[in-house]
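Sat 14:20. Reprocessing the chain from the morning session after the first attempt stalled halfway. Input below, unchanged.
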Amino acid sequence: MKSLYFKKIDAFATKNSNGNPAGYIKLKKQSQLSKADKLKIGKELKGFVSEIGFISKKSKRKYELQYFSSEMEVDFCGHATIAIMYDLFSETESLKMIKSITIITNKGELLVQNRLKIDNSVFIMAPKPIYLDNDIDVKDIAINIGINDDDINFRFPISIINAGLTTLLIPIKALSTMMKIK
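Finished this time. Tokens:
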């Protein structure tokens, strides 16, 4: 049985909010666990964290980060990255004074800025989104999310993007409509 360092962190948490839960496991190198093992851990943590990051150090200022949900490997996860990097900069003595590092993700190399001393935060460069073909029928969208098609704001396009996770963006006219979407 392997023993691994695991930590759960709530990104964007405040005194009035629990934040968005993510977790991470420190590895000596990414090959320490297979993708099947990482997915199994993601499945075991379903309901406890949204995604789990597996981080390994490549050099003094470069880390590799892979993400898994309970269902699949995710190319990039923003809230998990912020939570992990905040914790890493806070808890790793050798990183406390470093202004930035690079992380290697499935979406490429991204810069992470250490802003803990300035404003108690970290900044990450998000991957460039890829716009995917969209041939979804508006009536199908409305039916599947429980709204009328006239609740959709057609001044903005319905889009499918991927910046690490494929996401359908639907512009909705009113907050009251948003609240009834399932």
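The CA atoms of residues 112 and 124 lie 4 Å apart.
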